[in-house]
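Entry type: protein chain
Record version: 2
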Amino acid sequence: MLISANIMPVSTDAFTTDFLRVWHNQSLPVWGPMKALLLVDDEPLVSSELQKALQKYRFHVECAEDVESAKHMVEKTHFDLMIVDLNLKAKKDGLPNPENGAGLVREFRAAGINVPILMHSALTGDYHEMASIDAGADAYIIKKSYSFRVLLTRIQAQFRRDERLLGGKPSATRFAGTDHFKLDRQERRLAVGHKSIDLTVRETKVLEMFVTNPKRVFTCEEILHKVWGHDIRRSATALDSLLHRLRGKFQQHKIEDLIENVRGQGYKLAELTAARSH
């Protein structure tokens, strides 16, 4: 739903005009094999025009208008990336609420759905961005201000990060770890003893840094640059949220925390003994 920070309606004309202009005129490159995208937005005009524009670039795009429809579609179809409106409607009351979009992303992550998720909204302010990242979104885009060209670039960058992490690597480098645990880069899974944890792309990337450099202390800046690249605006908070979610998964599976805080320096891989890994 296109709502401004002061909860006044915002016209969709300028937003959709950019979609239409690019759809008819822009000549950006077509990227690789077709990817499946899910667009979750309760503004039909925005969804329709964005779907048309993205399909031109060999994306298969399906649309959901509320929380329940999105859940149903994800249950039956695998999507390579999702674009979710933060201020989303729910069928139960038909009212937009930022918690609906954030809650949907949180449920997807809790269910082990680790595909990239871009959250977009007309709501401005740090609080909404922090809530989105904390829920598990990979990026937050203010809907009123971004162009279709920027959205395409964001999608392309997200897939590039996936490919750098998971694609085109020799099978010998698929796994990393120690005698006590193993990180599967391709499947995005951490095995500790007989327990297995599903990971997001960024969780995998963070653990890969620690596992492949077990004695090194990484500063926050080094982690941000490695995991978020140049897209690090306000992502110190995003890093805190990511580590919090990762540690929550350790706790949920009754696994000792693998990440050690080194006061005043950063983070490193915690020492894990055989007794602590079971």
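Comment: Residues 134 and 244 are 9 Å apart (CA to CA).
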